[in-house]
Amino acid sequence: MHRSFIVLLCLGFVRAILQNITVDDTSPDIVYGEATFQCNATVPCPDGLKAGVFNESATLTFSSIAFNFTGVAFYASLDVVGAATIILDGEELSILSNPLSDVLEAGPGQGSHNISKTGLANIPHTLTIAPNTTLIPPTIIGFDHLIYTASLPDKKSHVGAIVGGVLAGVAVIFGLLLAALFARRRKLILRRNQRKSAVLRGMTVARQNHNAGEEDAKELPT
Ligand SMILES: *[C@@H]1O[C@H](CO)[C@@H](O)[C@H](O)[C@H]1NC(C)=O
Ligand SMILES: *[C@@H]1O[C@H](CO)[C@@H](O)[C@H](O)[C@H]1NC(C)=O
Ligand SMILES: *[C@@H]1O[C@H](CO)[C@@H](O)[C@H](O)[C@H]1NC(C)=O
Ligand SMILES: *[C@@H]1O[C@H](CO)[C@@H](O)[C@H](O)[C@H]1NC(C)=O
Ligand SMILES: *[C@@H]1O[C@H](CO)[C@@H](O)[C@H](O)[C@H]1NC(C)=O
Ligand SMILES: *[C@@H]1O[C@H](CO)[C@@H](O)[C@H](O)[C@H]1NC(C)=O
C-alpha cells in the first residue's frame, strides 16, 4: 500500500505544465539602467525604430536592461540601433549589431530582433541586454516585450495522485480485511470439521466395539 501511494505521489510532483508569461516593456519587473523614454500610441517612436508592436508601446534606453525570471525559456522582441550584447546568467548569448547608417538606409524594422533561448534549467535566470556604450553615436535599444516559459507543477494531477493514492490505500486495507476474515472463517470451519470428525470417529469406534461385543456374545457358547 505504501509503495503504490508513494509512486502516485511522485508522478504528481514530476508532471509539470509549461506556461508562457508575457512581460511588457512597461512592467516594473523590467529594470532599466538609466533614464528611459517610452513611445506608444500617443507618443510615436522615432524614425528608424519599429518597436511598439506589442501593446503599442516600447521603451527606449541608452543603458542596460535586466530581467529576472524562473523558467525554461525566454523570447524577447527588441530594436537595436548600434550594438548590444545579450547576456544570460553572466554568459554572452549573442551580439546584435545594426549600425545607424544601415538602419537609416533600410528604414524602420532593420534593427528589429527576436531573440530566444530554450531548454534552460528550471531555475532563476537573469537576462541582461547591454548596449555598446563606446559607439558614436551611442547605441539605442527599443525594448518591446518578452515572453518567458514557466514550468509549473500540475496541480490537477497532484490532487489526482493524492486521491488515487488514498483510494488505492483504502482498497488494499479492504482487501487485507477480507483476506483476514476469510482466513478466520476457514480456521473456524476447519476446527468445527475436526471436532465433527473426532465425534464421528468416536461414534464409529463405539459402534465397532459394540458390534464386536455382539459378535463376541454370539460366539459365546450358549
Ligand atoms: C511560448 O511562446 C513561444 C514563442 O511565441 C512559442 O514558440 C512556444 O511554443 C510557447 N510555449 C508554450 C508552452 O506555450
Ligand atoms: C499594456 O500597456 C498598458 C499601458 O501601458 C499596461 O497598463 C498594461 O499592463 C499592458 N498590458 C500588458 C499585458 O502588459
Ligand atoms: C506614452 O508614453 C508617455 C511617455 O513617453 C507617457 O507619459 C504616457 O503615459 C504613455 N501613454 C500610455 C497610454 O501608456
Ligand atoms: C535579479 O536577481 C539578483 C539576485 O537575486 C539581484 O541581485 C538583481 O538585482 C535582480 N535583478 C532584477 C532586474 O530584478
Ligand atoms: C519577430 O516576431 C514577430 C511576431 O512573432 C514577427 O511579426 C516579426 O516579423 C519578427 N521579427 C523578426 C526580425 O524576425
Ligand atoms: C563596442 O563596439 C566597438 C566598435 O565596434 C568594439 O570595438 C567593442 O568591442 C564593442 N564593445 C562591446 C562591449 O561589445
Using only CA atoms, what is the Rg?
42 Å
Helix and strand run:
HEEEEEEEHEEEH
Number of helices: 3
Q: How many beta-strand runs?
A: 10
CATH architectural group of the largest domain: Sandwich
Name the CATH class of the largest domain: Mainly Beta
Signal peptide: 1-16
Keywords: Membrane, Signal, Transmembrane, Transmembrane helix
Transmembrane segments: 159-183
Describe the structure.
- The structure is a single chain.
- The protein is of the alpha+beta class and 222 residues long.
- It has 2 domains: 152 residues, Galactose-binding domain-like (Jelly Rolls), CATH 2.60.120.260; 63 residues.
- Helix content is 38%, strand content 36%.
- β6 and β7 form a beta hairpin.
- The longest helix has 65 residues.
- The model has no long low-confidence stretch (mean pLDDT 81).
- It binds 2-acetamido-2-deoxy-beta-D-glucopyranose (6 copies).
